[in-house]
Amino acid sequence: MSSIIGIRHLQSFIEVARYGSFTRAAKHLHLTQSALTATIKQLEQDAGLTLFDRTTRRVDLSAEGERFLPVAERLLSDFTAALDDLRARAELQQGKVSLAGSPSVVTRLIPSALSQFRTQYPSIQVDIRDESAGSLEHRVLNNEVDFAIAGNHSQQPELDYTPLLRDRYGLILPSDHQLAGLSVLRWDQLPKDDLLLLSSDTGIRAQLTRFSHSGRIPITLDRVQIEVSNPASLAALISQGLGVSLLPALAADIHSFAGLSFLPLSHPVIEREICIITRKGRALSPAAAALLDTVRHHLVQMALPTWVNAMP
Predict the structure, then answer these.
(1) What's in the keyword line of the UniProt record (predicted)?
(2) Pick the CATH number of 92-163+273-306 from 3.40.1010.10, 3.90.550.10, 3.40.190.10, 2.40.10.410
(3) Share of the chain above pLDDT 90, in %
(4) How is 20-39 classified by DSSP, letter by letter?
(5) How far apart are CA 51 and CA 12, in angstroms?
(6) Residue 111: is the preceding peptide bond cis (ω within 30°)?
(7) What pTM value is reported for the model?
């Protein structure tokens, strides 16, 4: 017997689970309560399982319903994303683009590119997320954003990473520090000052940890006294003389680090790769593709910071 279950059953199930009430879910879905009840009954009959435990006051997910809920949400998300992609082909002037970027990308690269994009496509809505690398990858995987621009945090097999920029790691220190006048510094010459670093949920810290564990850089990170999750907070701590830090050049080229010195590190030269992160098998909508093309074109035109290079 062929299944009668479709998208409306998944949507109905998700909304009843969300509201814990057939009445409120039916109102949100613009259905009668009887129609919604019949839809859930069809789903349960087809599945052969009870998905909700019903009382006079509350409708709660059964154990089987709790297991099914994340699957249903993912199926509905994928279906909605597929429809959005189709509709966007005919709605370039009325579309929406969602992108995510690391703090340095959003601060340093996106604003001027977005200004150019808005001039050409003024009616396209743009949603920008500024988050850590792990969160960015998660949002791309779950179709919450069209693409992300950030470092390769964990090489997810379901994601494509297209190199966009490379920027060199260096030491961030106060401008009056005794080493500030040097042009370059070896990793094995790092000062004994307290080492301040971004927290482990950031792509930069994750990469430094990998380099340390693999022996590519001759330092250990066990002497880190203070960790912060935001580059602006890191800059404030360095400015107060609480220590020095390690950052790629692009991350150090934001307003918060004005007045501090960036000293590139050598032996070895270590670089971070900034990538365009997309989900495999999912084509960008015309609006998202147009924004990405604008970003690429803008990078060719803009004056990048020293020690930052666009990939060919």
Answers:
(1) DNA-binding, Transcription, Transcription regulation
(2) 3.40.190.10
(3) 63
(4) T-HHHHHHHHT--HHHHHHH
(5) 12
(6) no
(7) 0.67
Q: Are 150 and 277 in contact (CB under 8 A)?
A: yes
pLDDT band at 40 (very low <50, low <70, confident <90, very high): very high
**What average pLDDT does the segment 226-230 reach?**
90
d(CA 269, CA 250): 15
Residue 113 token pair: 């590119």
Q: What sign for the dihedral angle of Cα 219, 176, 233, 306?
A: negative
At residue 217, the pLDDT reads 92
Nearest to 143 by CA among 194, 233, 68, 78: 78
Instruction: Decide yes or no: CATH 3.40.190.10 for domain 167-270.
Output: yes
For domain 7-82, is the CATH number 1.25.40.180? no
Q: What share of the chain is helix, strand, coil (3-state, %, to 5)?
A: 45, 25, 35
